[in-house]
Amino acid sequence: MTMTCEAEAHFNTLSQQKGHQLVIILSDTCPDCIPVRRYLPVLEQFYPNLNIYVFNRMTLSETVVNLTIEGVPAFLLFQEGNLKARWTDRKAKPFIEVKAFIDAALKEDGET
After folding, report:
1. pTM value?
2. Which of 15, 17, 76, 86 has the largest count of CB atoms under 10 Å?
3. Strand pairing partners for 102?
4. What is the number of domains present in the chain?
């Protein structure tokens, strides 16, 4: 299930939940974010047990600074409240590379 979230406080509670949480940070002005929005439903199909949350970068100004997020789209994978993997550079992120990132992060935890 993908949820679009609006508040920094919501981010703080999500990152403390049990299980795996994929946080995707996008921006309305980012051309590389458009394809990510389009393939979100496909990600849901590949990872039905992964909670996926989408945030607008502008609503997470403090978090972006605290986590040194250099660009969007950004992907953060949490497990049991701990940041397990991050991909936060300024480059475009095609679906196949995002899937490889998620697979690698979940494999480290024995989830594949």
Report:
1. 0.88
2. 76
3. none
4. 1
